[in-house]
Amino acid sequence: MNEKKIIPTDYKSRMNEIMSVSWKIFISQFINNRHVINKEAPFQHHFAQIIRTVGELYSINESDLFKVDLETKLENIKGKSKYVDLTCQFDKIINCGIELKFKLKRQGAQDWGRIDSYVDIESLEIAILEKKEFDLGKFYLITDDTAYINKSKRGSGTIFCLHDGHKTIPNHELNYPNNKGRHKVFVTLKNKYTMKWEKVNNWYFLEFTIENVG
Q: What is the pTM of this model?
């Protein structure tokens, strides 16, 4: 006899399923041009709508309350205030912080894009591992630029690597002093992440989870 397929009662499992389903729906709508998305703001807006809808469907208990917020302010992330793109939670039982990046080839500035992505990932780690603001985090990046996908031979891409298959090294400080405007940025990631890109048509999608694995 097969087990009956039901939504998990465990909130962390449920949150991960919500994010997985929401990401699948977003990508499907995105590549089929359901919404015009050409920068991070509409990405943030439409993804939040999807997460809210899916989260409400995953509210299986009478007392469940699923909330989504935009631009949540965190204090003292490496001595500065930091706004997290999206946050969602179940009844204050489990919180998820979400950072988004949308990088078009015509925008250029790939060096800054890579460094800023690492800064966002590190910020989520600090919020989760040190400050206990979230129980888990999600990082998403969309691009049509193969410069992010392919291994860099020079520049900040040799330090702040996002290319497909790259594995980050925990507790290893990253800095690229030759990058004007980002030369004073130092990043140290506590967890190990693998950059696994998904290609759909001419677009590339990266996503992974940040959590306390200790």
A: 0.92
Element (DSSP H or E) covering residue 72: strand 66-77
CATH class name, domain 11-146+196-211: alpha beta
Q: Which of 177, 91, 73 minimizes the C-alpha distance to 135?
A: 91
Q: pLDDT tens across 72-120, in order?
A: 999 888 888 999 999 999 987 999 999 999 999 888 788 899 999 999 9
pLDDT band at 214 (very low <50, low <70, confident <90, very high): low
* Model pLDDT for residues 22-34, shown as the tens digit of each residue: 999 999 999 999 9
pLDDT band of residue 19 (cuts 50, 70, 90) is very high
Domain residues of the chain, as ranges? 11-146+196-211
Look-up of token digits 């004007």: 180
Q: Which residue bears the tokens 């509409």? A: 42
The 3-state secondary structure of 74-134, one letter per residue: EEEECCEEEEEEEEEEECCCEEEEEEEEEECHHHCCHHHHHHHHHHHHHHHHHHHHHCCCC
Report the amino acid identity of residue 144.
D
The residues near 21 (Cβ < 8 Å, ≥ 6 apart) are 54
Neighbours of 14 (CB within 10 A): 21
H or E element that contains 210: strand 203-211
Q: What angle do CA 190, 165, 192 make, to 5 degrees?
A: 10
